[in-house]
Amino acid sequence: MGECCPPMDLFRSEPMQLVQIIIPIESAHLTVSYLGDLGLLQFKDLNAEKSPFQRTYAAQIKRSAEMARKLRFFKDQMLKANLPSSKSKRQVDVNVDNLEVKLGEFEAELIEINSNSEKLQRSYNELIEYKLVLEKAGEFFHSAQSSAALQQRENESRHIGDESLDTPLLLEQEASTDPSKQVKLGFLTGLVPRGKSLAFERILFRATRGNVFLRQAVVENPVTDPVSGEKVEKNVFVVFYSGERAKNKILKICEAFGANRYSFPEDLGRQAQMITEVSGRISELKTTIDIGLLHQGSLLQNIGEHFEHWNLLVRKEKSIYHHLNMLSLDVTKKCLVAEGWSPIFASKQIQDALQRAAFDSNSQVGAIFQVLHTQEAPPTYFRTNKFTSSFQEIVEAYGVAKYQEANPAVYTIVTFPFLFAVMFGDWGHGICLLLATLYLIGRERKLSSQKLGDIMEMAFGGRYVILLMAIFSIYTGLIYNEFFSVPFELFGSSAYACRDLSCRDATTAGLIKVRPTYPFGLDPVWHGSRSELPFLNSLKMKMSILLGVVQMNLGIIISFFNARFFRSGVNVWFQFIPQIIFLNSLFGYLSVLIVMKWWTGSKADLYHVMIYMFLSPTDELGENQLFSGQRTVQLVLLLLAFVSVPWMLFPKPFILKKQHQDRHQGQSYALLENTEESLQVNSNHDAHGHGEFEFSEVFVHQMIHTIEFVLGAVSNTASYLRLWALSLAHSELSSVFYDKVLLLAWGFNNVIILIVGIIVFICATVGVLLLMETLSAFLHALRLHWVEFQNKFYEGDGYKFYPFSFALLDDEDE
Amino acid sequence: MKLNADSSLSKVHSAKQAEIELFWLICCNRGPSTNLFHLTLVITATICCWMMWAIVYLAQMKPLIVPILNEGE
């Protein structure tokens, strides 16, 4: 802006400078740490050609990475143990070296505890399984034995009782051979996962060709598998087999199925003895494990108290070394040279930080701070607050502003919610939106500290955008006179009334205007009338064009401020002026016609006027004439529009060429001023000088730009008609929901239907109108700003200022 | 009657004063560049809202079509 008034906040990005800091090596760490606290310097990587391993502080980075790994390990452990990492009140200042030792000790201890407890847990689980096998298989053996004994007794009694001729002769033989065969039968016991038990049985049967006897018993509760440590539902099995080969097969199958085998004593007495023994060992192990867990818990608790603090410390440490690696080492190896961008206003603070660092590290010499001159484009830095940052983000989603270019966010703060509201005009819906966003803003402090879902995060981030959107929606809703599509006579009574007392013509010829125009917004009488749509369409269409022309003019005017700021007379004379003439001679004129037509109440057909302004500009306008001398004015405007196209196209490339030639000639004969500095600069940076001037390229670029503007003037104006379309869709949808759901349900005179109707109405209003329509109106407003508004002046090819700051560290990693 | 007019006048007066105070609060209590920024916001918002009102008012001033009531009503 310059001379007349002070520079506006946010209109231009902060003026930046490239600074060089020479830091004595002994105070380098502290200096960088202080600069990180300050967070106003973006370091340049002076060792870009070196790989990470070749850099000076590679070892330290490795160390901090190792510490970070340990911390992650602790975090995992704490998560497993369900311990939250609480922030402790007392923050003991720890040295990084001490911390490293401490972390190493803790890690070793934790690993040992873990491996011990893992071993213990495993044997504990094994014992549990063993116990289950003992019980279940014992039951089975017991029942089998008792039934066998019963049969034996039966046999014997039969043998003794009715020894007659009927008795088969072989029976005795059979019975006598039985015990000898029994000896050869072996058996295996164990547990198999229930899911696999059927397949297990089948495979066993097939592999041994049916020469096995398998018994399974279901274990009711899931068992912890000793190998995997997971809870699995299992069956206890007992397999009887005969012969060594069958045994081997069964063993292999068991292995393949993950069935754990346990030896089982045949002797009943020993079984009981084993069970008691196993139970004893189980309880013993249980206490040992509990003690171990307790120990681990207290250790983790201890770590958890300091975790956040340590984590921050380690991350700071890592980022400090990361940035130290960006500095180049002086030839003497006694100092480090840093280069970076900083806002000019921060010079004092940076120098203060340097002094403090030199003092605190007892360095003999302080750091040297100097400003370098460079041709490079500085980064773009806007000082935003929590209100403006979300609007800035809207703009930056399109492109980061070129250094010091005019920032559209200044106007976007108002025009974005306003254009949104033009499409979302309903003060009932606006109030709903307002309440929602007030909730978000009211709980700002609480919500900003916790993690939210994706969509919630977005809504929370844009809470101030939504606030303004809601306020403007209430305003435009009042203008449109819609409250959930119901009109109210808030600002006096309607201007219209029946022609006579009988009101016969009200439905044919219509009402008549008897009072002065409704003072604020739309007359409520229009709602629901037959001529509502023709009237609203005409009104909203014209309004869209008027708003669009104004906003596009604003964009072109901002391009003027840009041209003046960058002292480019070419852009003022051969871009700004023809552009504004072209736009206004066509669409500015159309806007004037629209206003005049309203003002005078003329019946002129504006389409006709605009079309024949091009087709036959010399013809008489006839009844479409709005003012005298209109034909001459139109001829002049048309001429201006035609002249402004070559005006935009041709002079600029030639002037640029001439400027370039002048500059080069001047350069070759100019005196070499302050040689030292320029040499230094040139040696340090590739001077971003002007390379070859490609005239054809510049010309083609200008041609594209001109064509884009000329065609864009038409298409962008047409594009603003989306304001009409969206606003129409919104009001129609809400009136459909109101008429076809709420009023219909009301008409039934039935409470249940009414309640259902209200529920459907609320769901439709919230789901369709408040969520989907908000989203679509938001997107269309976004487009109008990105394309129709910003393409008039915004280049958006800058890059953002990312200062080295500990405050920004949190967001980066997570 | 006079008292009534007086009180309404003072009401208008106090409303105006409040308006000015609000304007002052937003636009004139921080640094000059921030004030200019806030002023720009206020002016932009005012222009937008005024345009909206003016357009709708103008369009209804000399209507070419009049409301025709629906048969059902």
TrEMBL record, chain A:
One GO cellular component term: vacuolar proton-transporting V-type ATPase, V0 domain
Key words of the record: Coiled coil, Hydrogen ion transport, Ion transport, Membrane, Transmembrane, Transmembrane helix, Transport
Record's subcellular location: Membrane
Matching InterPro entries: V-ATPase_116kDa_su, V-type_ATPase_116kDa_su_euka
GO molecular function, a single term: ATPase binding
Tree of life domain: Eukaryota
Main location per the UniProt record: membrane
Membrane topology reported for the UniProt record: Multi-pass membrane protein
Transmembrane region(s): 418-441, 462-480, 543-561, 573-599, 632-650, 751-772
One of the protein's GO biological processes: vacuolar acidification
Residue runs in coiled coils: 89-123
Similarity comment text for this entry: Belongs to the V-ATPase 116 kDa subunit family.
Record PANTHER family: V-TYPE PROTON ATPASE SUBUNIT A3, VACUOLAR PROTON ATPASES
Record's function text: Essential component of the vacuolar proton pump (V-ATPase), a multimeric enzyme that catalyzes the translocation of protons across the membranes. Required for assembly and activity of the V-ATPase.
Protein name from the UniProt record: V-type proton ATPase subunit a
TrEMBL record, chain B:
Annotated InterPro entries: ATPase_V0-cplx_e1/e2_su (IPR008389)
Membrane-crossing segments per the record: 39-59
Pfam families: ATP_synt_H (PF05493)
Keyword annotations: Hydrogen ion transport, Ion transport, Membrane, Transmembrane, Transmembrane helix, Transport
Domain of life: Eukaryota
Localization of this protein: Endomembrane system
GO MF annotation list: proton-transporting ATPase activity, rotational mechanism
GO cellular component annotations of the record: endomembrane system; proton-transporting V-type ATPase, V0 domain
Membrane topology listed for this record: Multi-pass membrane protein
PANTHER family: V-TYPE PROTON ATPASE SUBUNIT, VACUOLAR ATP SYNTHASE SUBUNIT H
Family to which the UniProt record says this protein belongs: Belongs to the V-ATPase e1/e2 subunit family.
Name used for this protein in its record: Uncharacterized protein
Taxonomic source organism: Prunus dulcis
